[in-house]
Amino acid sequence: MMSYQTEVVVIGAGAAGFGAALTCVDAGKKVILLEKGDKVGGAGLFGAQGLFAVESCQQKADGSSFTVKDAYSELMNYTHYRSDPTITKAILEKSAETINWLGQHGLKTELVNNTQEVHQDHPEVYHQYIDKFAAFDYMVNYFKNSGGRLLTKTTASKLINEKGIISGVEIRRNQQTDIIKCQAVIVADGGYIGNSEMVKANLGIDSSNLYSMGERKATGDGIRMLAEIGADVKHLGTFENHAASVVSFQNPKWHNATIFTLTNLPFLWINREGNRFVNEAICYDFALWGNITYTMGGYYYFIIDQNTVDYLKSQTLNWTDSFERTFKSLQNQPVTHKVGPFPRIESDLNEAVEQHVAWKDNGLKGLATKLNIPYHILKANLDGYNQIVKTNEDTQFYKPAKYLHFPVSQGPFYAVRANSTSLGTIGGVKTNSKMQVLTANLKSISGAYVAGNNATGMYDTSYPTLEGISCAFAWNSGRIAGESAVQQLINL
Fold first, then answer.
1. What distance lies between CA 8 and its chain's CA centroid?
2. Residue 365 pLDDT greater than 90, yes or no
3. pLDDT number for residue 300
4. How many degrees, rounded to 5, is the angle at CA 481 between CA 478 and CA 483?
5. Which residue in 85, 314, 440, 462 has the most C-beta neighbors within 10 A?
6. What is the pLDDT of residue 329?
7. Which of 346, 382, 350 is nearest to 364 (CA)?
8. Exposed, middle or buried by CB within 10 Å (0-12, 13-18, 19+), for 52?
9. In what order do the strands lie in the sheet with 126-129?
10. Nearest CA to 267 among 415, 126, 134, 52?
C-alpha cells in the first residue's frame, strides 16, 4: 500500500472538479485530482458546448439588461421555490465572474444567440466555448505547473472520516489500494446516470424506457461514499430530462438522419393509451419536451400517414428542425427554418420498422393492434386531430396554426416511438450555499464538500429552461466548493 499526502482531494475531473481543483491551486494549496477514466473533462467537455451566465462583461458590452435579480426570479418561479434560494443566488452571483475566470484559465467563451428556437425572445445567456479541447489541455498543464497532481485511472473507494472530520481518501490504482491523507475532499464525480441499479431505484418511470446520453463513468461512487459517512441522500430522484430520442435497443448505435429530423418536428403525438396529450410544438423547448415525455411514462409515438410521406418525399417544409439552431450556432451558420425534402423517407421509415422503433400498417385498425392500443381510442383521437387541422384551430392543446398542416387519414400509417432522454442525474447530496456536505439534520460534515451533479439544491423536479444552467452549476459550484475548502484550511 502506498500513502499520499496532500491538503485537498478532488474526486472527478469534469467541469465541477476542475473548477474546484484550479481554485485550490490558485490559492496555493496542495491538491490531488482523481479521475476514474483515462481522459479528463467528463460531460463538461464532451457533452457541453457552453454555459449560462448573467451580467457578464460580454452581456454588458452587448447592452443586455438581464440581471441576477431577473434570473433569480425566473429560476425560483420555475421551481416553485422547491429549490434552495441561497444556493441559486450564490450560483447566479458567481456566474459572470466565472466567465472571466475561465478565460484566464484558457477556456474562452463567446456570447451567442440562445440555441433553442423558443428562447429567441429571451435575453441572451449562453456563453459558447471556443476551442474547448485545447482549453482543457491548457487547464491540465496549468494545474500541474501550479503544483497539482492528476491521477487518472484512479477510483476513490472510501472516505476516511475520523470523529466526524475528513482525514483521507481510500483509492484503487494500478490494482492496489492506497490512501491519500488530506484535510478536505471535494466530491465531483458526476452523479449516477451510469449506474443502472441506482437509476432504476430512483427513476419515476420504467428504466427500460429511458435513453441515457449521460457520462457512463458517473456510477454514483461519490454519493455512495458520502452516504457512508452520514450525508443526506434523500433527494436523488431528479433527472436532466432533455428532448426525446428514437432509440433502437437491438442496435443502440443505429442512427437515421431522416428519422432524427422527423422526431424534432411537431407532428401528431399520442401516448401509450392512444391519446393526444400536448401541444406538439413543445419540441422547441428541450427541457419541457423532456419533461412531458417523462410524464407520459417515458415514451410516445408520433404518427404520420402516406399523404404526409408523399409530401415530404419531394417538398421542402417551412418548419424548423428543433435542433437546427443548436447545430448551426456551433458552426456559426444561419438557420434555414426549413426541412426536407426526404427522397428516401419511405426506405428510412421501413428501416425504422426493421429496428423495431416504428410500426406500419395499411389500416388504422392494424396499426392499433401493433401498438396494443384500443382501436376506438386511436380512431377517436385521429378523427379529433383531423378536425383540428381542417378548422386550422387547436382548441384542445393550442398548437400554433402554422403546424396544423398534415391530417392523418390516408394509409399506410406510420407510428414512430420516441423515448425519454436524460443528460444525467441532477439530484444528489444535500448541501448549502458553501457546498458543504450536510447530514439529514442539516449539520455539515467537516472537510466534506460536493459539486456538480453530485449536489442537490439548484433544481426541484427537472432541468430548468435557462440555457446552459447545468454546466454553469458545475463550474460555479466547483469554484465555490474550492473556495470553501481553502477557507477551511486557512482556519485550521
1. 28
2. yes
3. 98
4. 110
5. 462
6. 81
7. 382
8. buried
9. 50-52, 126-129, 109-111
10. 415
